[in-house]
Every structure is written in structure tokens, then in C-alpha cells.
Amino acid sequence: MARRLLPAAGIGALAFATGLAATVAADKGGRDDLSADDAARVATVTRPTTDFSKPERFEARSAGAGTHMKRVTRMAFSQPLANLSRKDETEFRFGNGLFEKLWVSSPSSTRASDGLGPLFNARSCQSCHVRDGRGRPPESPGASAVSMFLRLSIPPETDADRQALATKAILSVPEPTYGGQLQESAVTGLAAEGRLHVDYTEETIALAGGETARLRRPDYRVSNLGYGPMHPKVQLSPRVAPQMIGLGLIEQIHAADILSLADPEDADGDGISGKASIVRDHAGNIVLGRFGWKASMPSVLEQSAHAFSGDIGISTPLMPDAFGDCTARQKDCRGMPTGEQANLGATEAPDPVLAMVVHYSENIAVPARRDVGDAAVLRGKKVFYDAGCASCHTPKFVTRRDAPNPAHRFQLIWPYSDFLLHDMGEGLADGRPVGDASGREWRTPPLWGIGLTETVSGHTYFLHDGRARSLLEAILWHGGEAKAARDAVADLEPSARADLLKFLGSL
Residue 5 — very low, low, confident or very high, per pLDDT cuts 50/70/90? Predict the structure, then answer.
């Protein structure tokens, strides 16, 4: 696996590859948190079902004991885990307040809230993750893409670039002038970086049973560049903000369980060749990436720190640069005031701000499943398995026995993801490699909660850039390793396709 994941780049890369191979081998060796009896129980309870006549035991509780069983409303993705301690639930509420906090530019009379930008995409976490749900692309020409942004990078050009990529010091090379993502907003007195535009062309897809579907193919461009032209080989990749539910439980899936699903060379010949995303954490350790559209983040902590820096322009102890994504070429940007204040801490969001936002993000509950015993849902579940969807969207895991938070320990959860990278074909390719993910590869997104997207977020836009306007459209965009499953769904009789969609809507 190490040879597949890493290019050769000198002695440093060879030493890194050796360490990587040892780390992956150790994690693939099995779970070190379980007794033999517990391991046997886990193997039994996570075995794929073959009985679709009735719901599986505990199937309605997507997040185990932490599943929230409250009435479903537009706030369904903003509830605490049901098994949190009273102290942790209190801290969850404080963290929620910071998640919703609107940051302002410096200097400001609200000194605990300044430091915004100087370049930014949003003023708060909640601005992108509205009600902790899924983001959306701009719906009309010229509309702002608040909950969608454009990642930027260029191919490596120097030996230093290639060495940094090979050793995971970086996962992509930022665009030299505009950095790692396009910033559509700026503080007063500073030019924004530009404006993202999306144009769509539509095509009709024929389905079995005389039905058709319309797919829209996006084309992305940037206008009003504020700092000159971009690099001629710039790689652009749009991303909508993902939903926030169940993140702490995902982090407590043992790496061995995820790595055991990896088959980068398709040794079993089933056409599915998921591979792990291996990254460095903030301490320099070689770990498994499991968050983000390309599985480039290893933890909720790192994901949160990068969002503070890249999206809002707020520095934290993990990412202490108060200028966020401002590059060295943007001299006016790096000359703006910052929100750093010695009496409050060394960064604009000093401890415990980041820790409290992380605590909130780690403990948002997954809503209970609906209609798990409905006959059409059960038929749709069988279609899901028969079509091969479960080959990547792994239904269930049991979290670590030694998770730091008792609420996350030894829970049977149903995220419907293997958290691996898969080639999704040319139709979904963004042409932008990130770490181990090629320009055609994406992490399998969890499906839990997907049936409540419209309830929470007010729309039904899916995939990494929101191009799909329904779950059926999202399926029909699948290619590469998922083409056989996609074709199986297209070839279904309309009633069976309707059953599949009803099953997905129950998640």
C-alpha cells in the first residue's frame, strides 16, 4: 500500500514511506481496544445483513445511545447526543453559542469578537453550516456562494514542492497569489479576491421503465479578480459545506476497521478499490484522514482550526497566523489590523474558544431513523445491497471501547460510509489532487441524516458541489468504481427505484 500511496522523492520520502508502511500495517492488524469476547461481538453485530424482511436490531438508533429521538423539526441536526453527561451538555450549549458567533473586523469595540479576515468567506461557522446542515451552490447568477467555496491549488513545480507533498508536509500546493481557497469577502478597505460563478448545461438520461432524469453539468469560473491573474495551471474545486451530525462518533471508529475495508489494488476483483487517505496531524504523526470531501482531515479539531483560518480568517492555537489565507503576495492584506490581544490570549480565538467549538461539533446527535419497518423501506434496503451500494456505503461500525468521551464509547452506529477514497469517474472529477486523493477520487460521504436534508437545509442539493437536485440525480452521477451500482439503479423497474429512494429518505 505504501508504494501505491507515495511517489518517490528522495531519502526523506523513502524514510516517510517506511514509517507509513509500519503505521498502516499496525492499524490493519486489528483493534487494540477490544478483548477477544468484545471483538467477536463486534464482528457479529457489524456483519452485513441478509434478512430484509424486518429491521435489524437497533437499526433505528443511527448513533447508538446518543441518537436523538425528539420530534423532527428544522433543528433536527442541532441536538446534543442523548447520552451526554450534564456537564458535557452544558459545554455543548456554550460551544453552540461560539459556533453561531458573528466575528467582526479589527479594531472593534467588541474586543472579544474582532479579528475577522482580513479575507473571508463567512462571519461565523453557522453561516456555512446553517442549522448544522448541508450547504448549497448559488442559485442565481451573481448570487453569493456563502455555504460553498472554491479550493485552489497548482501542480508541484519545484523539488521542494514535490518533497513536501511526498512527506505529507502539505497535501496540495496553494495558488501563489490567492492561496488555498477563493475568498469572496474582505474587511473594509481591502479588495476581495473574486467572485465564483456557476453555469449549468442539462442533459437527459434514460431510465428503465420509460422514465427519464435530467442532470445538470456545472462549469465554474471566477470574475473580478482583486489581485491580478491566477496561475495559468490553477486547479479549481468547488465544495459545499457538509452536514455536522455524528462527527465525534466518526472520529472514534477505530482506524483498523476502516483500513480493513481498503483494497487499493482490487485484490478481490469486485471492481471496488477503496484506499485510505494518510495524512500528518498537527503534531506531525502519521494518521488516517477521515473528514472532508477528500478525507484530508484526521480530526474534528483540525477540521475546525482550518475552517476558522480559511473560512473566517480567525487564528487559533493550532493555526496561529492572524491573516488567515492571505498570501505573501497580498501585501495590503497582511498589513491590515488583527484581533490579537495580549490580555485575551496569543490568538484571535484563544483557548478555550476552539476547544468549545470542537466539543460542540463532536457531540451533535444523529436523528433517529424513520419508518425502518415500512415494507417499501425494507424493499429499498434490499435494492441498496443488491445494487452494490453497500460496498462503499458501509452501513455500521462499533466505536472504540477506549474513546475519551464516555458518550462515544462502544456505540453501534450506522453512518453508511467506509470513509475511504474511491474513483468516482470523469463526470465527478475535479482534476485537483489532494494528498492521496487523485483528481477523480472522493471520500465516501456518510448517508445518515440524508433524508432530512430538505427539512433542515431547505433544499435537496447533493454531491460535493451541490449539482444534484435530488438523491436520484446524485446516484446517476456516480461513475468509476460506482458505475456498476449506478447502472443497476438505472436499470431498475420504476417501483424498485422508488423503494430505493424511500429507503434513502429514511436514513
Answer: very low
